[in-house]
Amino acid sequence: MNRRTFVASAGALLAEPYLNAMLPAQVKAAAAAAKAHGKTHAGASRADYTLKIEPCTLEISPGVNIKTVAYNGQVPGPLLRLREGRPVTIDVLNATENADIVHWHGLEIDSRNDGAMEEGSPMIPAGGRLRYSFTPRPAGMRWYHTHAGAGANLSLGTYTGQFGFLMVEGRQNPGHFDQEVFLAIHHWSPSFVPMAETMQAESANMPATSGSDVGYQYATINQHRLGAGEPVRVKAGQRVLFHFLNASATENVVLALPGHTFKVIAMDGNPVPNPAKVEALSIAVAERVDAIVEMNSPGVWVLGSTLEKSRAKGLGVVVEYAGRTGAPVWKDPAPADWDYTQFASSAAAPAADETITLNFTDEGTKGDSKFDTWAINGKSWPDIEPIRVKQGKRYRLVMNNSSADQHPMHLHRHTFEVVQIGDKKLSGLKKDVVNVMPLDTVAVDFVADNPGDSLFHCHMQLHMDFGFMQLIQYAG
Fold first, then answer.
1. Sign of the CA dihedral 219, 438, 429, 278?
2. Are 362 and 452 in the same domain?
């Protein structure tokens, strides 16, 4: 069993003996809350939106069908456009055989509605429903997805098609654009593979890994593989606002559009201090990038992964100019390192009230597990003490990655400011996910201004399922 895999049947929400033995007190409270709230809302007013978690089959390319679980039978799920500061209700119906939960990623809302069982959010029982009620903020591109565990079951959690765009509209002005395009990346047909980094790590004098990894047979942008489905149709002279989301369970990606540059204007839904043009976008798991592309190179192009093997799996989409035909063209971009600092201010951030150092380590396989266990300061979830904070204080999390893996670190219910990458100081870059490279150090600051339990974890499903999580709790 893993930390968050539950079986629900005949109206029972959770396997209670397992729950009581393995999970902390706030999760037991979540189970009780789910029992109270999981019934049909008889007489309740109609919700603003309704999502249904249900099995579906996707034809991602001719003859290639994927059986998965999605919202309202589509991938991505429905685009939700909300207004900043305007209360919203969303009913979620669970038409599957497993308890599930929806996380509203990037929103600064209360713990109960946030959608993380570790914070006390209730699970939605099999065949049950739950109403989420919150006031969305901050403005920008957020997203929603399952926060259920998967462990060694690669048909659950974020391996499925349970994800969708969530736009919180406010006073932010992205500038003039002629067309808006939403593109979500996902990988399909996962399977166990040997840990590929082991020998590479040894040869590079890096920490070796010992367990299994997850590999994929296919990849898509939105619902289709490269060459299937409709192209992105544009006209010469247009300014197109692309919203990119990496909704993969475990795969970071690098994308390019030959003959064009991306002007990055926002990251994780937050405007960047220094919008900059790049030929390729590096997007870690759960990260979002908003970029303007000037359509000034007529033709038929491939917008896709810079890795040939990934494009062969399907990771790309055709961009077709009006009046142009022919086979889509791919050209490799010039090599370049991805650097968050180019989008930030070079001024130093304000001093923090307290600095907390977090060391990330790979503890290797334990027992009969196929996968490595991950630890923060030598301890793994659920056997790890929370980080205690006081309301109103500014905290600096200094993350030292001692492993050979990349770690896209996500903080729930708060936005943080990236203040250091290696030895580079920066400020003004606001995010909710930051990718910490192997053997690197990244520091982020957040203000403890949203009381309640908040989960901090690596967003790779494989890592958080095997220990890479910690709670932040407010004192008092």
1. negative
2. yes
* Residue 201 and residue 113 in one domain: no
Cα(374)–Cα(310) distance, integer angstroms: 27
| CA separation for the pair 407, 195 (Å, rounded) | 16
Query: What is this structure's pTM?
Result: 0.90
The helix, strand and coil proportions of the chain, stated in percent and rounded to the nearest 5, come to 10, 45, 45
Say if residue 229 is exposed, middle or buried (CB neighbours under 10 Å; 0-12, 13-18, 19+).
Answer: middle
Provide the 8-state DSSP code for 422.
Answer: T
Q: Does 259 fall in a domain? A: yes
CB 91 within 8 A of CB 133: no
Query: How far, CA to CA in Å, does 367 sit from each of 128, 208, 371, 375?
Result: 35, 18, 10, 16
Give the phi and the psi of residue 402 in degrees, each rounded to 5.
Answer: -95, 10
In a domain, 9, yes or no: no
User: pLDDT digit string (tens) for 352-397?
Assistant: 999 999 999 999 988 777 889 999 999 999 999 999 999 999 999 9
Q: Are 157 and 148 in contact (CB under 8 A)?
A: yes
Eight-state DSSP code of residue 463: H
